[in-house]
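User: Could you go from structure to sequence for me? I need the amino acid at each position, not a summary. Structure tokens:
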């Protein structure tokens, strides 16, 4: 069963192992129903934007840099 991240209205965040069918809601320690939080997946791509703006507000030059962060599994293999 997958591990899911939940957020409660009281501010508590916790993880729970639940079946896919019952993944949407979980009960917090406070007794309220917590909602499923969408979290980042193991492979994250970072993107940076650089812009050169003229004194009149026009964009003179624009550049985007994208890099993938490596993901290492439990066996030490990098993806």
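Assistant: Here is the amino acid at each position, in order:
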């Amino acid at each position: 069963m997958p591990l899911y991240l939940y957020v409660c209205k009281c501010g508590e965040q916790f993880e729970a192992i639940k079946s896919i069918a019952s993944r949407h809601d979980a009960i917090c320690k406070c007794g309220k129903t917590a909602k499923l939080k969408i979290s980042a997946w193991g492979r994250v791509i970072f993107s940076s934007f650089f812009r050169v703006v003229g004194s009149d507000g026009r964009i003179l030059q624009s550049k985007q840099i994208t890099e993938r962060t490596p993901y290492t599994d439990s066996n030490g293999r990098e993806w």
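One structural detail worth keeping in mind: The longest strand covers residues 59-68.
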